[in-house]
Amino acid sequence: MKKIAIIDDDVYIGDMLTEVLMREGYHVLRAYSGTEALYLLSQSKPDLVLLDLMLPGLSGEEILPHIQDLPVIVLSAKVDVQDKVTLLLSGAADYMTKPFDIEELLARIIVQLRKTEKTTTDSTISVGDLSLDVMSQSVSVYGTAVKLTRTEFAILKLLMNNPGQVISKAALLDRISLDTPDCTERSLKQHISNLRKKLQDVSGADYIETVWGIGFKLAEQKS
């Protein structure tokens, strides 16, 4: 069950949102002031936050920087475009002006939760017995951790994101250039060789196939 925190001192709006969200199958957390909101967020991690700006104590603008890695939908009576722009640039995922349509708010909540689920899902890539976690920059084979350099990790991630596809040397260098600006055409072969050996040392299998004259691909593993 997804948890949604309502941070709003307006009891009527908070109660209305609580009733609607619970009816939609969400678990609801409540905070009525900025200070209470900080305590709530230190004790529990919701999946999404509905944040009012005009709160007693700390304002919504002051609370926003303390909310990390969570989608925040601001609900406010402020209608100035610059206010909206500033909050969106400060980390808010969305902004709705009070009074708002409840059906539209529910739709926006669904959109933000979908984005969060996609990010979580995409952070782990699994192909056969290879597993790569983008967030922790870790790789394992059959559950055994394999220590890779930054360049080796970038190469393996690209190949695992494109299983069965041959990636040319030029395309490989171009697509990992932001992560590994030190990798050159001259050094690429050595990076591939080192990566192949590290994976082989754990499993005995060759996970990278060289397609002569073209490039490299993730090798098909025999079941």
Order of helices and strands: EHEHEHEHEHEEEEHEHHEE
The strand order across the widest sheet is: 2-1-3-4-5
Q: Over the alpha carbons, how many angstroms does the gyration radius reach? A: 24 Å
**Overall spatial form:** elongated
Q: Low-confidence stretches at least 5 residues in length (pLDDT < 50)?
A: none
Largest sheet: 5 strands, parallel
Count of distinct strands? 12
Q: Name the CATH homologous superfamily of the largest domain.
A: Response regulator
Sheet-strand content, in percent, reads 15-25%
> In CATH's first tier, which class of the largest domain applies?
Alpha Beta
Q: Would you mind describing this structure in some detail?
A:
It is a single chain. The chain has 223 residues and is of the alpha/beta class. The protein folds into two domains: 3-121, Response regulator (Rossmann fold, 3-Layer(aba) Sandwich); 124-218, Winged helix-like DNA-binding domain superfamily/Winged helix DNA-binding domain (Arc Repressor Mutant, subunit A, Orthogonal Bundle). The protein contains eight helices and twelve strands. The chain has helices at 11-23, 34-43, 60-63, 81-89, 102-122, 150-161, 169-175, 185-203; strands at residues 3-7, 27-31, 48-52, 72-76, 94-97, 124-127, 130-133, 138-141, 144-146, 167-168, 208-211, 215-218. The strands form three sheets. It has a five-stranded parallel beta sheet with strand order 2-1-3-4-5, with helices on both faces. Strand 7 and strand 8 (138-141) form a beta hairpin. Helix 6 packs across helix 8 (185-203). The longest helix has 21 residues, at 102-122.
